[in-house]
Amino acid sequence: MRDVYLVGAGQTPFGSFPERSYRDLFAEAYQNARESVDSPPDPEEIDEAVVGSLGVGGRQLGLSGPAVTEHVGLHNVTCSRIENACAAGGFAVRQAIQAVKSGMADVVLAGGYEVMTDMSSDATKYWLGVSGETEWERLTGTTFAGVYAQMASAYLDQYEATTEDLSRVAVKNHGNGAKNPKAHLGFSCSLEDAVNAPDVAAPLNLYHCCPTSDGAAAALFVSEDVVDQYSDERIRVAGSGGASDHVGLAERDSYTSLSATKAAAESAYEGAAVGPDDLDFAEVHDCFAIAELVAYEDLGFCEEGQAHTLLREGRTDPDGDLPVNTSGGLKSKGHPIGATGTGQVVEVFDQLTGNAGERQLDDPTLGLTHNVGGSGGATAIHIFEQEVAR
Amino acid sequence: MTGIDQIGTYVPRYALAAEAVEEAWGQFHGAGIEHTAVPGGDEDTLTMAYEAATNAIEAGDLDHTAFESLLVATTTPPLEEEPMGARLRSTLGLDDSIRTRQLTGSTRAGVEALVTAAERSGPTLVVASDSPRGAPDSDLEQAGGAGAVALVVTDDGTAEMTDHAARVDAVPGTRFRPAGSDESDGLGIATYDRNAYTSAVGGVAADLDTDPSEFAAVALQAPNGKLPYRAAGALGVETETIAAGTNVSEIGDTGAASPLFGLATAQSAASTLVVGYGSGDAAAVAIEGSIPVATNPHDGIVPEDRRSLNYGEYLRMRGEITTGEPEGGGAYVSVPSWKRTMPQRHRLVAGRCTECGTLAFPPEGACTDCGTFESYESVELPGTGTVEAATEIGAGGAPPEFVEQQAKSGAYTSAVVALDGPDGGSVSIPAQVLGDGETTVGDRVTATIRRIYTQEDVIRYGFKMRPLAED
């Protein structure tokens, strides 16, 4: 099958914009994505659009996809919406790549959008919670914070990591997000702040939880046959992996590892013919601090139970050997559900094209995105390679 | 002769001390009462009935399915219409051909149920469960307690019911509850009320063949801690005999369950006279022989490790100052869907894969081990298990449909529990863990029944776990 190239990616700031519509947010992301392309495709050249959303906070359960593409003038484009909870964006990217690989389309727009901060926290909790296992898990009175807290309780019981290591995730990601003008919570924090925050769902405190955000992101994928028309960059989709797992935590074999991540990572690494040691950086799904520790292990960055050593030794800091979440991650950059997965691709595009501003790493060539739905019910992983020597 | 083989009791572990009420109100109207038992935010007369009945059944010799009658007595059913018997039967795993009857409308109902059992044949489960309420500053409210008593009655029960009697008299205004109200009331006409009580109690006792003075203990209806002793003269018994058959000072007025708590308290007495009274009516049963009492999860009828509430906590626990489910909607589980899963939610009915033996809960979908689709033999889990993962949900952390529970009872634990299989193995399920203590991975727990939540005014009951006492 033919190769697929990422020629552009852009996003809105992630944050709280209660008076903006999802269409308006998407339009800004689309515009920014177009502007990031050396020679942007005309609207009529876009063959297909695949967009991710949880349902725009419940206000538009159906047909939000065509609503955003028509809004930006992609009239009559083939558009479909992907829903895989918080991994909707990552799976929209995967579908876009598949459309190009299959030969059915040459230019495909992937995107995502969500509006979440214009409603009460109770309404948000309702809306987010019904993406989990609702008949049994939810009826123990838990939200996603609670489910990840359960994972953390098992992890801290099983391994040497401490709640302070969870707080290290916040310190690192806020440090990165403070350099990202698009970040929702773009401030840095001390370890002391992150340790002493009030509990949300013990053992997780406020600094161990990402915010809910408004925002949109978009990315343009093209085939090897047409890439020359649009870009001098050669950011190839080297690998793509997707996998699913039981939606409820109790049904899984392990509470300290996500088998969907392991399975998706295996496919992505195999497709890219690389291993975790080859990566220059990664954007991982840190909706809760424990998720970043578990991701290190499931993605093969370290052995099981050793994630805390990477954090303590600073190896995933921007100046470490494998920087993780240079964008600030979900924790600092923000988490507008459907936009999050595509937003990770925006950071990878910026890093690989040398446009990451203050966050810019030293000529990275291989980056990974890791996007998880719910507490691990679905995972999409992509590996991008910059083929142009800089 | 028809007799009682076993008693099971249940008293909630929360307690309100007379001093706490006095501190709030400047005075306390619960005569002769030191503590009242308070149901937890997710408890009601049905869950308390389940607890007491489970204690009675599990301590006795009869299998769950052997019971032919289920008699439920309460003045405070969770719903004014829709009887408790059917859901109680489901949670207890009783046979569905069982005859059920709900006796209500009078605190006499508990002893009335026992009289009814004495007149029936076949194994009968009598359960009296009550939680009387009144206006906040009333005698009735401040004396009001909570608890349940269950009795296993059989044709040749060890503690024989040798005689019984009943009498009715219209004495308006002594104790009544207007339609649609949660608060029982009385006009508080001291002498009138007292005379109604002593003449009914004395009269019904006089209808028995045995003179009251010949009983080792007398278990009287105890709306407070003083009134029973007022009947000493009418009955011709010593106050010690009455004291041997009451625990009202420590649990409060338990309505329909009150005289049966007295019977349980007098468990080792060689003979007991039990007299129920309510709103002018009385019923009495004469019992020869002592009766064993099971009180799980507590060592005695009155919990030894009670948690004393202050008055503010009490108002929260009772739902007096909580605001209910917030706007925004809760996760919706339809009633028919709930009904489909009742065997799981009420009795932990799991499945064992016929291909590989792996346990599944709920027994739906493909086997998590071998992938075989829905080929399960039904197995009932014993209900014990081990906590594998846990978190504490505090204020602000509960999803909308659990906000009311959090507001009433405070932080709760949401966990994953590996439930023991009936013959080894285990199956992991999500569950709430009760108790105020911190729940940690590795804790042993056991299942009980509580309110899960209420949606569309339909109360959803299901299992929750509570810490298992170390063996």
UniProtKB/TrEMBL annotation, chain A:
Pfam family, one: Thiolase_N
GO biological process, one term: isoprenoid biosynthetic process
Ranges where the Thiolase N-terminal domain occurs: 4-225
Keywords: Isoprene biosynthesis
UniProt keyword annotation of Zinc-finger present: no
A GO term, aspect molecular function: acyltransferase activity, transferring groups other than amino-acyl groups
Domain Thiolase C-terminal: 241-385
Origin superkingdom: Archaea
Protein's name according to its UniProt entry: Thiolase domain-containing protein
UniProtKB/TrEMBL annotation, chain B:
Keywords of the record: Isoprene biosynthesis
Segments forming domain ChsH2 rubredoxin-like zinc ribbon: 343-373
Keyword Amino-acid biosynthesis among UniProt keywords: no
GO molecular function: acyltransferase activity
Any Gene Ontology biological process: isoprenoid biosynthetic process
Any Pfam family matching the protein: zf-ChsH2
Xref: SUPFAM superfamilies: Nucleic acid-binding proteins, Thiolase-like
Organism superkingdom: Archaea
Signal peptide from the UniProt entry: none
Database matches in InterPro entries: ChsH2_Znr, NA-bd_OB-fold, Thioester_dehydratase-like, Thiolase-like
Positions in coiled-coil regions: none
CDD domains to which the protein is assigned, alphabetical: init_cond_enzymes
Protein name: ACP synthase
